[in-house]
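Repro:
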Amino acid sequence: MYSYELVWEGPISSTFKTNFGDEWAGGHIAVFETDDRRKIQSHRLMIKHEDWSMFDKFLKAFRSEEVHSYMELTDGFYKETKRRVVNFNFRYGDCK
């Protein structure tokens, strides 16, 4: 069984804010084996501040028998809330 958490990684760079606005938060989705809490994977993301806690609650309540991809998790969140997590397809060093 797998569990998921939203992990905040810090403020977005000034370059990113200039290009996309100031309402974004950066972090990652951490994927854990539920039994021993061993982190096995993570998915980086940018999400609007206003959606952070709603997505965090969604992930904390979600369990799966197989590891879900970034798209499966964000699509599931959209189906439940009609709120989108934007996939910027960025690499960590790209937004300094």
